[in-house]
Amino acid sequence: MLLQEEQYVVNWLAQYGALPRAQVVRMLQKPAGTAEKILKSLLRRGQVEEISGGYYLGLDSMCKPDQRTILAVWVLLKFIKQVEPMAHYPAVYPSQIFFLKENVGYEIVVLYEGEQSLLRLLQPQEDLKYIVVLPHISMAGSLRLPKVPCLFATVDFQGGEEPEILFYSEEKVHEGILGSA
Fold first, then answer.
1. Which of 22, 47, 65 is the last residue of a domain?
2. How big is the CA angle at 80 (ends 79 and 86), to the nearest 5 degrees?
3. Domain CATH number, residue 31
4. Contact 57, 39 (CB under 8 A)
5. Are 55 and 21 in contact (CB under 8 A)?
6. Nearest to 9 by CA among 59, 83, 84
7. What is the pLDDT of residues 132-157, one digit of tens each?
């Protein structure tokens, strides 16, 4: 029988595939030592496997990390203290993750250069907001956004284990205050 936190880890890895160990530790919202004990217990019992020398964790050693999902999880982690452990899960394409925060649904959409047209596939609904993750904020000016609130984010890996996540409001982007940042 798995402990509650162990069940969370297995469920997250089942939903998202292989994730960086640092993300799983952060998702647990426990002190690092406690989180590592939970992971060691799962590893010892064969419930999860280390991938790429332990950088990633997955349900089996053949799991392949999905970079869009990993970027979306980094953004999700900015809200994790306000999101229940099981109140986030994979979303419908082109979004990567759906989560509930304060009874409002959010979808995280990761776009790469040249994928601006994917936003046309979104199915906006009342009480739903989008967080559009872009490689650089200057790309936001060329997007045709759905008629629901949108927030933009960039994920910048600066050599550390965890990236810097910057958020931009739709208003700031359209006012041109950001320029071509």
1. 65
2. 125
3. 1.10.10.10
4. yes
5. yes
6. 59
7. 999 999 998 888 888 888 999 999 98
First to last CA, the chain: 51
Dihedral (CA of 139, 144, 146, 147) sign: positive
Domain co-membership, 163 together with 113: yes
pTM of the model: 0.90
3-state secondary structure of 90: strand
What gap in Å lies between CA 15 and CA 36, rounded to an integer? Answer: 21
Q: Rounded distance, CA 56 to CA 174, Å?
A: 38
Same domain, 49 and 87: no
Residues 21 and 77 in one domain: no
Residue with tokens 């809200």: 79
Dist. CA 75–CA 52, nearest whole Å: 23
Q: Which domain holds residue 37?
A: 1-65
Nearest CA to 38 out of 85, 103, 106, 73 is that of 85
39-60 tens-digit pLDDT: 999 999 999 999 998 899 999 9
How far is residue 84's CA from residue 80's CA, in Å, rounded to a whole number? 8
Domain end call among 41, 65, 89:
65
Query: Are 33 and 84 found together in one domain?
Result: no
Region for residue 2 given its phi and psi (left: phi exceeds 0; alpha: psi -120 to 50; beta: otherwise): beta
